[in-house]
Structures are given as structure tokens and as C-alpha cells.
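Supplementary notes (optional reading)

For those who missed the lab, this is the record we used. Protein: Glucosamine-6-phosphate deaminase. Length: 244 residues.
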Amino acid sequence: MKIYVEDNYQKLSKKAAYILASQIRLKPDSVLGLATGDTPLGMYRELVAMHQREDLDFREIKTFNLDEYYGLEKENPQSYHYYMMENLFKHVNIRKENIHIPDGEASDIEEACSRYEGLIRQAGGIDLQVLGIGRNGHIGFNEPDVKFEATTHLVHLDADTIQANARFFDSIDKVPTQAISMGIKTIMQAKKIVLLASGHEKREIVQKALEGKILPELPASVLQLHNDVVVILDQKAAGELKEI
Ligand SMILES: O=P(O)(O)OC[C@H]1O[C@](O)(CO)[C@@H](O)[C@@H]1O
């Protein structure tokens, strides 16, 4: 595991964008796994700027997002479909048919999940997966007490996650209680993983995930078992690490 500690969020975002841009330039038909949440927003801004300034080319890129709320329409401003369109896809030259996000409106959930896994396989697997980390250690929407062998599936969100994400909704009772998420197995099959964390409130969970025991109670701890993980932190999120 390679850990970079950057001075601040802006530098973290630039570093992450640089790694993604290198992946895109070295392999223009890369398959990228993408994340939502506040943390990658700066990285997406940088990538859009690189596309506009330097012609960073997304034409052959395929993307698979980690997760989507279950029960929200794609057009809902709180959906991850909407987030990805607004923050990345509508600003770059990616082809619509190359964008994949779990279907939060699927009526046959099992079929939708296994189709998603099939599409990832058909694309040749994920070359580079971007991750954030939840305050409870979740990656994607894989909540504590996760099954490490799970692939894409329906998850029930933890009270902590619902609370944390309530800031994006009018009230807490509007936050969906379920989501479709890639599983830990799906994530661990990515060839390379880039984990981002920023801010004081992540410092304890980052320390436990990177330096503590590998436990289903802390889903992100499984990343210690992956052989190509780059972690990019700002100073605040790195504050509790012992080995830096
Ligand atoms: O970057 P944030 O907003 O702290 O979110 C952390 C994690 O929580 C989620 O937003 C889900 O709750 C994930 O998508 C994200 O990786």
C-alpha cells in the first residue's frame, strides 16, 4: 500500500486527478470504477479542467460507479446518476453507452445486480477503482459486518450513513434506506485501487482501516489485502496514522 499525505484537499484532488489522467493516457480504453460523495468532487473538477485544457480524452473510457440509492429516480438531484452527470460526464467526451451506474429503479434487483457484474466482466474488469471511505469505514455502500465475498447487491444503509448523508436531503426521512452497491469482492477484483480521504472526521477510521485488524466490522480494512492500493490523504485525515 502506497500512502501519500498531501498538505490540503486541493493538493489531494490534484494528485488523484493526476493518477487517473495517467491511467487514461497510458490506456485510453481503461475501465474506471468511480465513487461519489464529497471527497472526489475536487478530483472530478481537475479532470474536467484537464479535458478542457489538455484534451484529456474520455472517448474510449468505460466507467462503472460503485453504488446508487435504491428507490431514487435517475433525475433526482440526490441520485448518483445526477451527481456523475453534473460533476463529470456532461463536461467530458465520454460516450453515453460507456457509462454504467447501478440501476436504483430496477424492479428485479437480483437480475440488475448480476447484469452489472456481467457488464464489468465483459469490459475486461476494472483497471482502476476510486474509493472514498464512510465515517463508519464503509467503501461503496458496504456497511460494517459486510461479507467480503459479496458481489453487487442490495444493501440496507446503516443509521450512521443515513445520518451522514441527510445533509444532502431536505430532511432525514427523505434519505433512502437502501442502495445497490458493488460488493467487496467486486471492488477487490479491480486491478488498482485509489482510496481518498480528507478532513479531521476521517482520521480515526483511516487509521483503523489502514493500520488495524482486517475485520468485516470495518469494510475498508480489507484493502490491506489488495496488492495495488494507493491511498491519498490530506494532513487532517492522516492525523492519527502511526507509521507515517
Ligand atoms: O466523501 P464523503 O462525502 O465523506 O463520503 C464517503 C463515502 O460515503 C458515501 O458517500 C456513501 O455514504 C460514499 O459514496 C463515499 O465513498
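If you only remember one thing from this example: The chain has a mean pLDDT of 97.
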